[in-house]
């Protein structure tokens, strides 16, 4: 079952409850979606400048139903980046807030719904699309690059089904949105819950907004997901003391959550009767590749768990040979139907087929324990050489975190910069890391910053660190 083709299967069930209290059934959502999709031509490219609102969800579904391939972008995207993407990919259509209709000279409005408009562009050289291409997403942390991930219809369907299976999603679940739908994790939450006919509480409010918690309570939300930054906010908001009786499931992905915080939330969720799933994924695998069963959340804190249903993990050394030894470190490799077709960096690339063959070299370094659980220990490309010593920046960040200071690390060979929002303790941080690594102190610099730069999904923007 394709969730977007079979919306009618859930009929009069409520699909969406919007910020303003509007209730939309699956039949109603299908009608809106088909109104948008019906104003387009099949097998064309559309840019969808989305927000967590009915207009964006309906357009996403309408494009999938009409076999239009949407590029999902944030409605708050930088104008210069948007112009770059328009010139690079030259889409046939734009779906955007009507107030942004001037972004493409010569475009004309062919359909309206709510506060959004569908524009047909003047481009006569729109790209050809491969028959399997369903969806385009920007790569994580992409700020100025036109690099996109090409997802197929099989990718979307298989990942939604696998997620729904291991989370045990039923029609009675009511997720509330905490992540943008232009982000693969946020979009996968919609996909997997639409598959099972759930009611989605659709809000653009952040966790720092009282209105979010009001909607969660009145809408009786059963689940929400978050990146590490969301869980840091939940701790500051004293989630432990919150009375949220409807909440049954929490999920975490989008980056490695500090092991101490995993244990803390595992304990809090156990007390509240909430299932806490730590997960791992990449846009290049549609969304998710692994999950840690809640029973292991506390005892195996720091683990990404096991492969999702239908998926498979293994480790490879630098020569591409499988690593069989328990506890050894190698590159994490994944196989599954959710591995995407490949990348695109120009319009001509949209005509390409499957370049990955269902196998993804994640670029993450991992180890496997005796129970078959996997642990990410670093990123292959986040490695510096300091006076001849290979240093993994994730491991440095973890060590300093366990020492009691939050930080992010960046730098170049022979110069590692430790960025922290802590105004004090810089000398202690430097002394600690020198002692732990045995590398001369001149290789390290501790830098104070007001805040850690993040994208709208809460992921750290390492490229923004000077």
Mind explaining what this structure looks like?
With 466 residues, the protein is an alpha/beta fold. It has a domain at 382-464: GMP Synthetase, Chain A, domain 3. It has 10 helices and 25 strands. The chain has an 8-stranded mixed β-sheet. Strands 11-12-13-14-15 form a 5-stranded mixed β-sheet, with helices on both faces. Helix 7 (228-236) links the parallel strand 11 and strand 12. It is globular, with a radius of gyration of 22 Å. The model has no long low-confidence stretch (mean pLDDT 93). It comes from Pseudoduganella ginsengisoli. It holds the Pfam family AMP-binding.
Please give a quick description of this structure.
25% of the residues lie in helices and 27% in strands.
> What is the overall silhouette?
globular
H/I helix tally: 10
Q: Report the helical percentage.
A: 25-40%
Q: Profile the largest sheet.
A: 8 strands, mixed
Class computed from helices, strands and strand pairing: alpha/beta
CATH architecture annotation of the domain at 382-464: 2-Layer Sandwich
Counting DSSP E segments of at least 2 residues, the number of strands comes to 25
Rg value: 22 Å
Determine the CATH topology of the domain at 382-464.
Answer: GMP Synthetase, Chain A, domain 3
CATH class of the domain at 382-464: Alpha Beta
> Roughly what is the average pLDDT, rounded to an integer?
93
Q: What fraction strand? A: 25-35%
Compute the separation of the termini in Å: 48 Å
Pfam families: AMP-binding
Organism: Pseudoduganella ginsengisoli
Protein name: AMP-binding protein
InterPro entries: AMP-dep_synth/lig_dom, ANL_N_sf, ATP-dep_AMP-bd_enzyme
